[in-house]
């Protein structure tokens, strides 16, 4: 799976709002990593805003393979969920859900007005200063003898690799952390010196 070297997300709940012709649009941005978390946030919002006319939402989940979904929640098709989703995509965010709660003010806004209102509310919740950049690192284990570790460390230093103490009790070797952009270079260098292909333990995200 191909990951970027870094991505933008949020690490706390953010809020924004927009008003037009008496209608109030309250936006909530949540950090999420699964559809189950999205459902939990929606359930809590519906309980808190039980008198709201609509709760429209969108999310982008995943870093390497992204899943995108949106809902108009009975608003005219394309007038709410898509503008909210567009606000997330314009910021190039991952693992983010934005829900916009609408309290109807008595006057119809029309589709163009709704598109602007839902989009502006979502945009106001996703201000640049509230975003968090996270770097991506793969953690790999390279099987080798103790005497071979110094050679792997030498190769790793040329590729900005961070090494860990051995965490594989059943195999002799060395564990390293590396950014996606230089992973292939490191693998090719190890192969050139006759080492077996390392295997991935996990992927970590660091702010």
Textual characterization of the structure:
There is one protein chain. By secondary structure, this protein is of the alpha+beta class. The chain has helices at about 35-50, 80-90, 110-125, 150-155, 185-190; strands at about 5-10, 15-20, 25-30, 55-60, 65-70, 95-105, 130-145, 160-165, 175-180, 200-205. A hairpin with a 2-residue loop joins strand 2 and strand 3. The longest helix is centred in the middle third of the chain and has 16 residues, at about 110-125.
Structure in a nutshell:
Helix content is 29%, strand content 34%.
Q: What is this structure's SSE topology?
A:
Layout: E1 6-9, E2 14-20, E3 23-31, H1 35-48, E4 54-61, E5 67-71, H2 81-90, E6 96-103, H3 110-125, E7 132-143, H4 149-157, E8 162-164, E9 173-178, H5 183-192, E10 199-206
Antiparallel strand pairs: 1-7, 2-3, 3-6, 4-5, 4-6, 7-9, 7-10, 8-9
Q: Structural class, from helix and strand content?
A: alpha+beta
SSE series: EEEHEEHEHEHEEHE
How many structural domains are formed by the residues? 2
DSSP summary: helix tally: 5
CATH architecture of the largest domain: 2-Layer Sandwich
- The radius of gyration computed from the alpha-carbon positions, rounded to a whole number of angstroms, is 23 Å
Mean pLDDT: 92
CATH fold descriptor of the largest domain: Ribosomal Protein S5, domain 2
The helix content is 25-40%
| β-strand amount | 25-35%
**Count the strands?**
10
Q: Find the CATH superfamily of the largest domain.
A: Impact, N-terminal domain
The CATH class of the largest domain, by name, is Alpha Beta
What is the overall shape?
Answer: elongated
Major beta-sheet overview: 5 strands, antiparallel
Low-confidence stretches: none
Q: Cα distance, first to last residue?
A: 21 Å
């Amino acid at each position: 799976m191909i990951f970027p070297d870094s991505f933008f997300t949020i690490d706390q709940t953010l809020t924004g709002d927009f008003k037009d012709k008496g209608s109030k649009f309250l936006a909530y941005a949540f950090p999420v990593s699964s559809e189950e978390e999205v459902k939990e946030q929606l359930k809590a919002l519906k309980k808190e805003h039980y008198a709201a006319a609509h709760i429209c939402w969108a999310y982008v989940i995943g870093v390497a393979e992204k899943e995108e979904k949106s809902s108009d929640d009975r608003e005219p098709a394309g007038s709410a969920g898509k503008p909210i989703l567009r606000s997330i995509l314009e910021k190039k965010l991952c693992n983010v859900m934005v829900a916009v709660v609408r309290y109807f003010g008595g006057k119809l806004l029309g589709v163009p007005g709704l598109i602007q209102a839902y989009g502006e509310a979502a945009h106001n919740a996703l201000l640049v200063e509230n975003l968090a950049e996270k770097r991506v690192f793969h953690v790999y284990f390279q099987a080798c003898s103790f005497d071979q570790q110094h050679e792997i460390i030498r190769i790793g230093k040329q590729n900005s690799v961070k090494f860990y103490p051995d965490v594989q009790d059943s195999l002799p070797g060395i564990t390293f952390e590396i950014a996606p952009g230089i992973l292939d270079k490191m693998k090719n260098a190890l192969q050139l010196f006759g080492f077996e292909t390392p295997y991935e333990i996990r992927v970590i995200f660091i702010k």
